[in-house]
């Protein structure tokens, strides 16, 4: 039975490959990454508005503080909400804030929108849905809970694949937490492990209304094509919306593509107009217009020295922006540039592996040792997943050695007693620089799932500010300090033994985890 369950995902129809033309690099401008704004909106902010967090406890406390002080909106997108005491405390904070908002004004201006994955959020008798139903019952006009269901899980496949295994087909994997005009980007889910001893990455963008508006609109767009949780714990689609697994798949994906791309393109147009207006007024030597705009939004803003680019990847809907930008960054990385890339699940796509092995930059890749893998010690077939990752890692390391690239491409394994590892993203150090000028942070793991199956979002943060560059550098150093360099001896250790059946099955199922 176990072997059949592992092979069950292979019944899913293949995802169509969509080719896109390479984007043209723009050599002009304040920094060399302005070409990204050809694809997505560019948000210029002051580096003083960016704070890099380092620990799960800090992340959890910030979530609670931000919920308690929110006045207009709370928007949270995650894979799931856990069912423990810490998660209940978050729900209690939401309830308390909604209650205060009602009492203060009689009719609340506060809106709460939560986006989760349907299959993961419905797992078990006590689940994300049962945690949130009381909020819907108590505040039906203020709270919206949307549950995204992948259009690729349908028909006979949906009937055959049991709970947990159905999550391999595709998920809502975006992690964004925003409160009024403050936005937290992370790879962490809303679960007690991510609040205590599961290491991830977190960045807070403070007082950033345009970025908050963008992610609010993005979550709304995905929410509109998702199942809506009702007060009796049932779900239904919005009126007139094509159903994700009962309706026509192509029609559903086209609608979803249109909704998401409307958000991206309208934000891009707004930011281009803002940029042109600012540039025009500064060219004329008059900042009166921009001062009036700034005063209308609550005071003068400092000149931006940091730029935020939201990168969206939703291959089921034909949206591949994050993939295009990531591949271009890896392709364009120059000789003597350094890229620190980290993933909790080392399972790079072939395209990313080819670029790492075939380009000139120096790579330091941080991944989870078997003991800090999130599946370590799991029951049943899932308990073999860390071994599958060891096998994939060994294959990649062997290829590095075969190409004599050990000095240029280095693997490092995160190891920390009592902790698990879930950090993802990259830091780019230009040639001759001791500090990173760009980081990617968000939900993608750089693997097949992130590129082809799941809904993902991260941001590219580009900065010229030394203090913020130092923050990012310290974050990178702190993570890599808990690691050891991988060598041939690593795979001779007893805990790296991979059973034959795992070696045989891994190539068949590696695109599903």
TrEMBL record:
Keywords: ATP-binding, Lipid biosynthesis, Lipid metabolism, Mitochondrion, Nucleotide-binding, Phospholipid biosynthesis, Phospholipid metabolism, Repeat, Signal, Transferase. Pathway: Phospholipid metabolism; phosphatidylglycerol biosynthesis; phosphatidylglycerol from CDP-diacylglycerol: step 1/2. This is CDP-diacylglycerol--glycerol-3-phosphate 3-phosphatidyltransferase. It is found in: Mitochondrion. It catalyses: a CDP-1,2-diacyl-sn-glycerol + sn-glycerol 3-phosphate = a 1,2-diacyl-sn-glycero-3-phospho-(1'-sn-glycero-3'-phosphate) + CMP + H(+). GO terms for biological process: cardiolipin biosynthetic process. The keyword Repeat applies. Its main location: mitochondrion. It is an enzyme of class 2 (transferase). Belongs to the CDP-alcohol phosphatidyltransferase class-II family. GO terms for cellular component: mitochondrion. InterPro entries: PGS1, PLipase_D/transphosphatidylase. Residues 1-19 form the signal peptide. Functions in the biosynthesis of the anionic phospholipids phosphatidylglycerol and cardiolipin. Its EC number is 2.7.8.5. GO terms for molecular function: ATP binding; CDP-diacylglycerol-glycerol-3-phosphate 3-phosphatidyltransferase activity. It comes from the Eukaryota. Residues 168-194 form the PLD phosphodiesterase domain.
């Amino acid at each position: 039975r176990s072997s059949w369950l592992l092979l069950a995902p292979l019944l899913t129809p293949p995802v169509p490959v969509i080719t896109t033309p390479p984007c043209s690099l723009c050599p002009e401008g304040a920094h060399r990454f302005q070409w990204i704004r050809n694809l997505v909106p560019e948000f210029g902010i002051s580096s003083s508005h960016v704070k890099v967090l380092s620990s799960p406890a800090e992340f959890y406390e910030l979530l609670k503080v931000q919920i308690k002080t929110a006045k207009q909106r709370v928007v949270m997108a995650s894979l799931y909400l856990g069912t423990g005491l810490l998660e209940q405390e978050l729900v209690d904070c939401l309830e308390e804030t909604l209650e205060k908002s009602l009492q203060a004004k009689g009719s609340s201006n506060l809106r709460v929108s939560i986006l989760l994955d349907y299959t993961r959020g419905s797992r078990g008798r006590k689940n994300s849905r049962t945690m949130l139903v009381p909020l819907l019952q108590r505040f039906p006009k203020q709270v919206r809970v949307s549950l995204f269901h992948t259009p690729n899980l349908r028909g006979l496949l949906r009937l055959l694949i049991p709970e947990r295994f159905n999550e391999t087909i595709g998920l809502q994997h975006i992690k964004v937490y925003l409160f009024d005009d403050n936005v937290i980007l992370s790879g962490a889910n809303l679960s007690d492990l991510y609040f205590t001893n599961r290491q991830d990455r977190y960045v807070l963008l403070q007082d950033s209304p345009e970025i908050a508006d963008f992610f609010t609109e993005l979550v709304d767009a995905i929410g509109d094509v998702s199942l809506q949780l009702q007060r009796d714990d049932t779900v239904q689609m919005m009126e007139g919306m094509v159903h994700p697994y009962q309706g026509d798949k192509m029609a559903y994906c086209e609608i979803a593509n249109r909704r998401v791309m409307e958000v991206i393109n309208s934000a891009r147009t707004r930011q281009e107009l803002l940029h042109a207006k600012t540039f025009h007024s500064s060219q004329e030597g008059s900042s009166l217009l921009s001062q009036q705009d700034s005063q209308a939004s609550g005071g003068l803003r400092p000149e931006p020295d940091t730029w935020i680019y939201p990168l969206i990847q939703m291959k089921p809907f034909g949206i591949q922006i994050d993939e295009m930008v990531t591949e271009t960054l890896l392709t364009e990385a120059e000789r003597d540039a350094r890229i620190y890339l980290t993933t909790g699940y080392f399972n790079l796509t072939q395209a990313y592996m080819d670029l790492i092995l075939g380009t000139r930059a120096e790579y330091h890749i941080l991944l989870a040792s078997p003991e800090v893998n999130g599946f370590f010690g799991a029951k049943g077939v899932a308990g073999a997943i860390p071994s599958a990752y060891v096998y994939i890692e060994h294959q990649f390391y062997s290829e590095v050695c075969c190409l004599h690239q050990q000095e240029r491409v280095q693997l490092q394994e995160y190891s920390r007693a009592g902790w698990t590892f879930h950090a993802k993203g990259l830091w780019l150090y230009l040639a001759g620089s001791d500090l990173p000028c760009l980081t990617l942070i968000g939900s993608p793991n750089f693997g097949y799932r992130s590129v082809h199956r799941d809904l993902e979002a991260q941001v590219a943060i580009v900065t010229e500010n030394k203090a913020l560059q130092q923050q990012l550098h310290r974050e990178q150093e702190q993570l890599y300090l808990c690691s050891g360099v991988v060598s041939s001896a690593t795979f001779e250790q007893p805990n790296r033994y991979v059973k034959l059946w795992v070696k045989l099955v891994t190539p068949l199922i590696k695109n599903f985890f």
